[in-house]
Amino acid sequence: xxxxxxxxxxxxxxxxxxxxxxxxxxxxxxxxxxxxxxxxxxxxxxxxxxxxxxxxxxxxxxxxxxxxxxxxxxxxxxxxxxxxxxxxxxxxxxxxxxxxxxxxxxxxxxxxxxxxxxxxxxxxxxxxxxxxxxxxxxxxxxxxxxxxxxxxxxxxxxxxxxxxxxxxxxxxxxxxxxxxxxxxxxxx
Length: 188
Description:
alpha/beta; four-stranded parallel beta sheet; two-stranded antiparallel sheet; single chain
């Protein structure tokens, strides 16, 4: 399930979605539905061009960035935990890779460490599963374990980090973290 969801998510977004759309258009053309094939091909190309065009991509991301900046001034005192969802780090995948790989979202771990050191919350909950769990000191093979080790390197003590390492997607991250924190306030 984990791999299928990750692959589907990658193929649903441009530029891979254009390749998928063109393959579908080709299959539809083989069924002799030429007009539908052309519409599918054109839609696939236009979607990629639209999302790749800076005015469109910027218009989609700017409201999220504005909101994040507005909420960046988190007061020190008011949270029971800082929650770091998976997706910022790829766990090790022995025997191919023995070390975690920082992804585009790795800044969320740096920011969580910064908030912890400012006293925003007494603990950090790292959430993210992987292929294997409980590796007893070997390579970090879950996102949660890889994040724990990275946060340790950023000066967060191990006793302040709680791991949720069974989830395989963001929905499961949220469900399992909610079970852990109940109705307490968290910084996400």
